[in-house]
Amino acid sequence: MIEFIRGSIDYVTPEYVVIDHQGIGYKIHTPNPFSYSKNTQDIVVYTYQHVREDILALYGFQTREEKALFIKLLNVTGIGPKGALAILASGNPTQVIEAIENENETFLVKFPGVGKKTARQIILDLKGKLGDVATHYAPDLFTHDDHDARETSNIALNEALEALKVLGYAEREIKKIVPALMEESLTTDQYIKKALQKLLK
Description:
Blueprint: E1 4-12, E2 16-21, E3 24-29, E4 43-52, E5 55-61, H1 64-74, H2 81-90, H3 93-101, H4 105-108, H5 116-126, H6 131-137, H7 144-166, H8 171-182, H9 188-199
Parallel strand pairs: 3-5
Antiparallel strand pairs: 1-2, 1-4, 2-3, 4-5
């Protein structure tokens, strides 16, 4: 894994930049290539290497936090590198984080390729899990105690969801009640009781 590349900007296109590092040109896809100026010397780009059977690509970011947000978006079901890059290119990272934490689907569906289902999935997968990135972009969004409480709540919720699967409830049934459960901060037992109440209605 290449953590970062330091060099000079040799070439800029609408989709990627080329960085010259000791005579080797690295093609790096970035959210906003034109934020880099050609011939800029001694620039650092933080990189993520994406490997698939038919693809080997480098994605680059101006800060480690922007790279971390990109990786978190990749973990969302239905979002690939191009989709994650489009979100970072179209939106201010602070606004993206705030939209996820505030469950603002209306804001998220403005991004290319993000419909209501994907927006809901982004919120479901990432709400409460962006504290390490938010400290850079939105330091007031999480207090330390609030972040710890959210993390504890997420663990309890995940444990409760696993318990429901053991009890024989289908993934489809469980997904329907998750948004309502995410609105509360409970213990594992409390989440299970709450979930059973909703499932038995």
